[in-house]
Amino acid sequence: MVQNKGMAQAGSIGVIIGNRDFFPDRLVSEARVEIIELFKEMGINPVMLDTEATKLGGVETFQDAQKCARLFADHRDEIIGVLVVLPNFGDERGVAETLKLADLNVPVLVQGYPDDLDKLDVARRRDSWCGKISACNNLYQFGIKYTLTTKHVVRPQDPSFKADLLDFMGVCRITKGLRKVRIGAIGARPGGFNTVRYSEKILQRNGISVVTVDLSEILGHANKLTQHDSSVAERLQRIKDYAPTGRTPDEALIQMAKLDVALSDFVNANALDATAIQCWTSVQTNYGCNVCTSMSIMSENMMPSGCEVDVTGTLSMYALQLASGSPSALVDWNNNYAEDDNKCVLFHCGNWAKSFLPDIEISTAPILGTTVGEENTYGALSGRTPAMPLTYGRISTDDPKGIIKAYVGEGELTNDTLKTFGNRAVAQIPNLQDLMQYICRNGFEHHVVMNASKTAGRLKEALGNYMCWEVASFH
């Protein structure tokens, strides 16, 4: 087995090299070397048969499939996807039987080599163009989901295949992450937000666990702490290091630090990957500050946190984060932008990860302050998001249909003038009016997730093909 131990934590890719004995053996040997070199170049850890385990390390017979399946099963915990390499026609059954026996339930990428026009004689031809169709046909028959390369046949060093492989790694991360994610629902859904209702049972059927806690338990824990506790002092310093405090008074910063400790303790005790927190308006009324800064810190550190107990919004944050490897933010589809039909304003009181906010400052939430008193809203963040790439998306449970559905798309965040407060951005999205029609007609929430990437294709493949959710794509 070939394996780079140092990269195992990032996840490994199993490799099946298909073969048929009446094609030149050197094609298998050459492909093996090229794939190992490519994986090393891209920092991907391969799990593949040794050349001594089967003929040249390829998979052709049922016995070969058994050996490869056992190898994959031994590394089940680290393999996040499988690459099928067809240097020649390959044995269509061997590929499918390996995957069936291994029973990994991970994404599969199928690659085939192109022929050269001057090498179509018996001694040098590949026939991978045809073999790939047969391999996919067998995977389809076996009920095994798979992903295709952009070009039907392509060499490993082709730029398009490298891009395909990067996208595939993203698909693998999304699929693995969503099938075991644990989300904390902290507090009750605010009474005025029917829009964020969801089905825990539908999520659980898809491997997504929701851990609930009453907000009073979190606030009660926070209230028992004092500024002299080492954990509070540590969190207070973390908050000050994270963002300029502006005019936020010391007592508000201490309140924020105590709440941050209570939230962190709950997250750690329950091994959570993300949180959805009741903010509007209980935290302000019953505790006296906003939780936005803590949420921003968590999101920046790749533990997404969404407000208003929007669990599926937080799930969407996690999915987009898995796709890109960078933080996500939960935002409102909030305003039109002047008369431009393809631009709109994205907004929230102030809990976006600071990756989106180069001018970040701890402030207040003026809108919320009109009902609870602005002095009780310290902890909200202020900042404007500059121009950057945009992937947007939303996952939702459709309870009447008993399904999970989603939409994803791409656009740009712009530097257009925007004079307002809170966390804010201007988005330019092709066919924005059609998107708004789709959102409204299909009962999606007013919350959407933004991520500074171009990863909608990865999300569509992972959510639609492998998670088997209903996905609309707008990129």
Structural features, described:
- With 475 residues, the protein is α/β, with parallel strands linked by helices.
- The protein has helices at residues 25-42, 62-74, 92-102, 128-142, 159-178, 200-205, 215-224, 230-242, 250-269, 282-286, 292-300, 311-324, 366-372, 432-441, 456-466; strands at residues 12-17, 45-47, 79-86, 108-112, 147-148, 182-186, 209-213, 274-277, 305-307, 328-337, 340-348, 361-363, 380-384, 388-398, 403-414, 423-428, 447-451, 470-474.
- The protein has two domains: 5-176, Rossmann fold (3-Layer(aba) Sandwich), CATH 3.40.50.10940; 182-474, L-fucose Isomerase, Chain A, domain 2 (3-Layer(aba) Sandwich), CATH 3.40.275.
- The strands form three sheets. Strands 10-11-16-15-14-17 form a six-stranded antiparallel beta barrel.
- β6 (182-186), α6 and β7 form a beta-alpha-beta unit.
- α3 runs parallel beside α4 (128-142), α5 (159-178) runs antiparallel to α12 and α5 packs across α15.
- The radius of gyration is 25 Å and the shape is elongated.
- Pfam families: Fucose_iso_C.
- InterPro entries: Fuc_isomerase_C, Fucose_isomerase_N/cen_sf.
